[in-house]
Design brief:
8 helices; mainly alpha; N-utilizing Substance Protein B Homolog, Chain A
Length: about 140
């Protein structure tokens, strides 16, 4: 599977777990079942997907603060669509904790937003992630290239 496919699977799992209100203690069973049902194997593939799924949950408070810091006064975290929240959670986790290059992450997140979000999702996702890149000085290394 490609990394884009892996991200899509990770998105589907995180979205499913969050919309069902699955407790963290039940994640392993649910994730394993999802991967088995989809016949997804391969050490690198399953490792990446599990890292993202568990990591977004483990760092949920930090990630939520990152998102909230980029919202205008008229928007609250609770008003955001669950699709947009999950896309942002995965992207922020990848940038801040997996150290995936921000340009790759933003591009992939925008593609997920095109596939799963509404018509305004891609630009919203792009804007929030661009703000997070600036706030966390993630673009400093890119300027040297």
């Amino acid at each position: 599977m490609s990394m884009s496919d892996n991200r899509k699977v990770a998105f589907e799992i995180v979205y499913s777990l969050e919309t069902q209100g699955t407790k963290y203690e039940e994640y392993k069973e649910n994730v394993d079942m999802f991967l088995e049902d989809r016949d997804i194997h391969g050490k690198a593939t399953t490792k990446y997907i599990k890292d993202v799924v568990y990591g977004t949950k483990r760092h949920a408070k930090q990630i939520k603060k990152q998102i909230e810091s980029c919202l205008s006064e008229k928007w609250t975290y609770e008003r955001l669509s669950k699709v947009n929240v999950v896309i942002l959670e995965i992207a922020i986790f990848e940038m801040l904790f997996l150290k995936t290059p921000f340009k790759v992450v933003i591009n992939e997140a925008v593609e997920l937003a095109k596939s799963f979000g509404d018509t305004k999702s891609p630009s919203f996702i792009n804007g929030v992630l661009a703000s997070i890149v600036k706030k966390n000085n993630l673009d400093e290394g890119a300027k040297e290239n």
